[in-house]
Design brief:
Radius of gyration: 22 Å
Number of helices: 14
Helix content: 55-70%
Low-confidence stretches: none
Strand content: 5-15%
Number of strands: 5
Mean pLDDT: 90
Structural class: mainly alpha
Distance between the termini: 31 Å
Shape: globular
Amino acid sequence: MNTKNTKETIVAGIRTSGKLHIGNYLGALKNFIELSEDNTKQCYFFIADLHALTTPFEPKELSQNILDVTATYLALGLNPDKCVFFPQSQVGEHAFLSWIFNCLLPLPELERMTQYKDKAKQHKANINAGLLTYPALMAADILIYKGRAVPVGEDQVQHVELARIVARKFNNRFGQTFPEPKTYLQKPLRIMSLSDPNKKMSKTGDESLLLDDSPEEISRKLKKAVTASEPGKKSPGEENLMLLLTHFGSKEQITYFADAQNSGTLKYSELKENLARDISEYFEQFREKKQELLARPEFLAEVLAQGASKAAGAARETIFEVKQKIGLI
């Protein structure tokens, strides 16, 4: 039996910034690693360096960020032998297919995209064509590998829907070629800001716990975490810390602090101290491994080159089929 055809193809893009926080890990990175270990799935994980060009960037920072995010994923346990892990820019077929899709998509389809509107507001001095056609490239990223499932955050669901529209348009015009991808169903997880627990955690200031943070930095940030609440009510900040405890604490700790919370005897200082220690210990090996990897940039580049070679083989097959169907061959 040809296992290549029986496996479910999963495709996911990875941001070029390696400075990821604990919400990124629990909401995405951890799931990617688990998916790659599933023998029933063929996973393509690409570093979205072409997408990074749509917003202001510095060349030296971009190249360093690519190495940094590579080291981050490998240090967390992603095995490049069990998935296809590569930089998007090293497989030129992505850009080729996105041009084909650009020629299929009506302009209003792209203009209605929420993320285009948001980024255009954020970067008023740099509203480039790439911002507008970003979803066509994202559709190409998915469909070039005949992706059937895409693990994405809430902000990217609309882009997956557009990929479905593109696949349908192409299939209707030129014959059945692409599956219509779906968002990969996983339990929603929202880790909130430490300084404003009513909004989702981001990388700004002291509101996040970065995976690269030292034990001292983790402790400092958690001590400042907002936990104020009305008498007799559980605060959003308290709930956020308890959620983190369920992921990083021991069963005994989870039971102890849950009982204290229910009885109204929960001490925030004690919870924060235990949580800081647990999170620091959880990522201790990661921090050490990442520094070792960053000291070997040639090795990181070779891992990416090997992944790009694997991806290019599958991408070329799709492009040959597309060229035949649209009359370029």
